[in-house]
UniProtKB/TrEMBL annotation:
It comes from Alicyclobacillus cycloheptanicus. Zn(2+) binds at H65, H67, H212, D300. Keywords: Hydrolase, Metal-binding, Zinc. This is 5-methylthioadenosine/S-adenosylhomocysteine deaminase. Substrate binds at E94, H185, E215, D300. Its cofactor is Zn(2+). Belongs to the metallo-dependent hydrolases superfamily. MTA/SAH deaminase family. Binds 1 zinc ion per subunit. Residues 57-403 form the Amidohydrolase-related domain. Catalyzes the deamination of 5-methylthioadenosine and S-adenosyl-L-homocysteine into 5-methylthioinosine and S-inosyl-L-homocysteine, respectively. Is also able to deaminate adenosine. It comes from the Bacteria. Its EC number is 3.5.4.28, 3.5.4.31. CDD domains: ATZ_TRZ_like.
Length: 431
């Protein structure tokens, strides 16, 4: 048994409960064993004591959508619409990605996410056993899927085979930090019979599904033309929603789509920055949350963002929808914070309590420097975290009770080596 006592200057337990004064958190193995205000009243014997009197503890941020090793494609194709970007820039470079590249690209993503306060992320990509190895090594929590594309018989079959073996090898592994889901890419890359096969496989393996849905207007128009249904209605008709589903984007959804998602408890990953950069549009998040949908925040891959900084998504989510609705109260700071933490954790199927600092929750904690000039003074701690804090304020990160970042120093990643390998691989990709 290992016990860490965190002594901090303030605690945001959840979007509902903020303690603006000293407090403590006891991390025992991988859960929060105790949390309280003021001094820890018990014995410190046998505990690792971490004193951070000028830091605020928040639940670790949850990135609900991304493609980790796309860090290697960062900046390789900007200012293009989704389909041109995919076919002319992304797919040709991805064809050159080796297993080695996936491993180093994922580690680079883990380094970047740990540095910016993210404790759990979602990934849909290729050679995923290498991505899982990087996750295991980094100490992060992750929800991983092997991207499935069914445009031809060979790729369709290998998608099923790879996913099946990936579930067998990595689901609930790395001390329970890794969850495996199925990852059918999208309705425009997975024909209906393939989506049906994926749905059956999800049932047989008892794992959730993550998929891109209704990302662009073109996708919706094509789906209506081909199947006479919206992508959401189409996914439902293929049986996907009979299983737990995390749908990324949902930018172009109708009221009927939202009702289908509500009736089937479909979770949503909102990726405001990626949707803006690819000119896809703005998801009707207030309508979705008002309908009762679970909506988390995500960065998407670093090729369409171009970083994995969840603080940017948090602030963007909290500001963007106000301007769309001409209503400053439509998505308040507390709700945005909940999307980045507790609702994000629910969206990616983590156990109840995850994404909060409640007793019994997973010991995933991020500390921010309260003495950063832009966090002074403190009229509202939550407001400062949502509207003023940034990745550079992150000083310490714990996942499952283990320190992955300590006083801004990564503890699990050889950052010099990762930098060297990422630059080497990127050079080969661009040749
Ligand atoms: Zn994506």
């Amino acid at each position: 048994m290992s016990q860490t006592l965190l002594e901090v200057g303030a605690i945001v337990k959840s979007a509902r409960e903020v303690w603006d004064g000293p407090g403590y958190i006891v991390l025992q193995d991988d859960v929060i064993e105790d949390i309280g205000r003021g001094e820890y009243p018990g014995s410190r014997a046998g505990m690792t004591v971490v004193k951070r009197p000028h830091r605020v503890a928040i639940p670790g941020l949850v990135n609900t959508h991304g493609h980790a090793a796309m860090t290697l494609l960062r900046g390789a194709g900007d200012d293009l619409p989704l389909m041109t970007w995919l076919t002319e820039r992304v797919f040709p470079m991805e064809a050159k990605l080796t297993e080695d590249a996936i491993y180093w690209g994922t580690l680079l993503a883990c380094w970047e996410m740990i540095r910016s306060g993210t404790t759990c992320f979602t990934d849909m990509y290729m050679s995923m056993h290498k991505a899982a190895a990087a996750v295991e090594e980094s100490g992060m929590r992750a929800v991983l899927s092997w991207g499935m594309v069914g445009l031809d018989e060979t790729s369709a079959r290998s998608g099923i085979r790879n996913s099946e073996s990936f579930v067998g090898a990595w689901h609930r592994q790395a001390g329970g930090r890794i969850t495996v889901t199925l990852g059918p890419h999208a309705p425009y890359t997975c024909p209906p019979d393939y989506l049906q096969q994926v749905a059956e496989l999800a049932g047989r393996l008892a794992v959730p599904i993550q998929i891109h849905l209704s990302e662009t207007r073109t996708e919706v128009d094509d789906c209506l033309r081909l199947y006479n249904r919206t992508p959401i209605a189409h996914a439902a008709s293929c049986g996907l929603f009979e299983h737990p589903v995390l749908a990324a984007h949902c930018v172009h959804v109708t009221d009927e789509d939202i009702e289908i998602m509500r009736a089937n408890d479909v979770h949503v990953a909102h990726n405001p920055q990626s949707n803006l950069k690819l000119a896809s549009g703005i998801a009707p998040v207030p309508s979705m949350t008002q309908a009762g949908l679970i909506v988390g925040l995500g960065t998407d891959g670093a090729a369409s963002n171009n970083n994995l900084d969840m603080f940017e998504e948090l602030r963007l989510a909290a500001t963007l929808h106000k301007a769309v609705a001409f209503d400053a109260s439509i998505l308040p700071a507390a709700q945005a914070f909940q999307m980045a933490t507790e609702d994000g954790a629910k969206a990616v199927f983590l156990p109840a309590g995850s994404g909060t600092l409640e007793k019994g929750a997973a010991a995933d904690v991020t500390l921010l420097d309260l003495r950063s000039p832009h966090l002074i003074p403190t009229h509202s701690l939550l407001s400062n975290v949502v509207y003023a804090a940034g990745a550079d304020d992150v000083t310490d990160v714990f996942v499952a009770g283990r320190a992955l970042l300590s006083n801004r120093e990564p503890q699990t990643i050889d950052t010099e080596r990762v930098e060297y390998e990422a630059r080497r691989i990127a050079q080969a990709l661009s040749q």
